[in-house]
Write a structure and sequence with these properties.
Elements (H helix, E strand, L loop, with lengths): L8 H8 L6 E4 L6 H9 L4 E6 L4 H11 L4 E5 L13 E7 L4 H5 L25 H7 L2 H11 L5 H11 L8 H12 L12 H11 L2 H14 L1 E11 L2 H14 L19 E3 L9 H6 L7 E7 L29
Parallel strand pairs: 1-2, 1-4, 2-3, 4-5
Antiparallel strand pairs: 5-7, 6-7
């Protein structure tokens, strides 16, 4: 039986700055750890949760029974958060990646610790499985999955091995796929600390679920769903995820989104305050208790109130067409 330990829980609750009567959105319900903690912390808080995984429905039902009238669940990917009831929210949180339940259910195909179909879909009823992707994807798509999403330094060998294995059945099961990748990346020397197929499995999971595309879609929707002074907090586990979140948050805060952003300051619009100049990360105690938290990074921003426009100046008739009304537009 899987156990679920919410990552960076204390830091998440501190940054959300929970308020009495607040309304919150958990974009990635998973095991429900963050959601339960919010509902327990504030007696009259209301929380809406989303999850694309059909297996999350039963876990959500248990939370709804414990917090009647305060918890609402919708089976949906977090990219569709604009359809969630309860907006505007005082806080929106997202804990990216897979939940412990998904990793620990061998038949879902996320792990190679047991033999199972190589599926890896968050929602097994949508899209194509990892096995189908491996058999049909173009070479360029395989490279993007293994090299870019998986950070596999020996991606050329892995992609060659995948292409050569098509039609053999080796790509359809987790153990045979892991063995294929391990053989492709093997080099003499001391054994690696992690399984040789870890990076490739990660890249395939991210690709099959379009996790980066969903994140890019969800972030502006999440910020738009915030009430003034509301907080958007995101936990990522991969450098590509963290980079997307960091750039989006920098843009909201009127800062350069990356090293190539040389726009002058007067061309930037400050819509949010950065609450984490550097991401919050787990301490030694948390990583010891929950090794899966070791790569977690938490970033957060607070939505600034929209300034109230100044009242229009009194109308003054002028015969000089070059004289215009004073500019009353205010910048944040």
């Amino acid at each position: 039986m899987s156990t679920h330990t919410p990552v960076l829980l204390d830091a998440m609750l501190r940054l959300l700055a929970l308020r009495l009567g607040g309304s919150y959105l958990d974009c990635t319900f998973g095991g429900g750890g963050h959601a339960r903690a919010i509902l327990e912390a504030i007696a009259d808080a209301r929380l809406t949760a989303l999850d694309a995984d059909p297996a999350a429905v039963e876990r959500a039902r248990a939370v709804a029974e414990r917090f009647p009238g305060r918890f609402f669940f919708k089976a949906a990917n977090f990219a569709a958060l604009d359809t969630a009831p309860g907006a505007p929210f005082d806080g929106v949180l997202a804990d990216l990646g897979c939940s412990s339940f998904q990793f620990d259910d061998a038949q879902r195909g996320f792990s190679f610790r047991a033999d199972a179909p190589a599926d890896m879909r968050m929602n097994p009823h949508e899209g194509i499985s990892a096995a189908e992707f491996l058999e049909t994807a173009s070479e360029a798509a395989l490279i993007a999955a293994v090299r870019d999403c998986g950070d596999e330094p020996r991606w050329k060998a892995v992609v060659r091995a995948i292409l050569a294995a098509r039609g053999t059945g080796k790509l359809s099961r987790t153990l045979s796929l892991a063995e294929l990748v391990a053989a492709a990346v093997w080099r003499p020397g001391p054994p690696a600390k992690t399984h040789p197929a870890t990076r490739t499995f990660q890249g395939l999971r991210i690709t099959v679920n379009d996790e980066l595309g969903a994140l890019r879609t969800a972030l502006p929707k999440a910020f738009a769903a915030l009430a003034p002074d509301g907080v958007l907090a995101v936990i990522s586990f991969h450098s590509l995820e963290d980079r997307i979140v960091k750039r989006f948050f920098n843009g909201l805060a009127g800062r350069p989104v990356d090293a190539d952003d040389s726009r002058p300051q007067d061309e930037r619009e400050k819509l949010a305050e950065l609450l984490t100049r550097h991401p919050a990360t787990p301490d030694e105690a948390e990583t010891a208790a929950n090794p899966r938290s070791r790569s977690a990074k938490l970033r957060a921003v607070r939505k600034l109130p929209v300034p109230t426009p100044a009242p229009a100046a009194a109308s003054h008739f002028s015969l000089n067409p070059r004289i215009t009304a004073p500019n009353t537009k205010q910048t944040p």
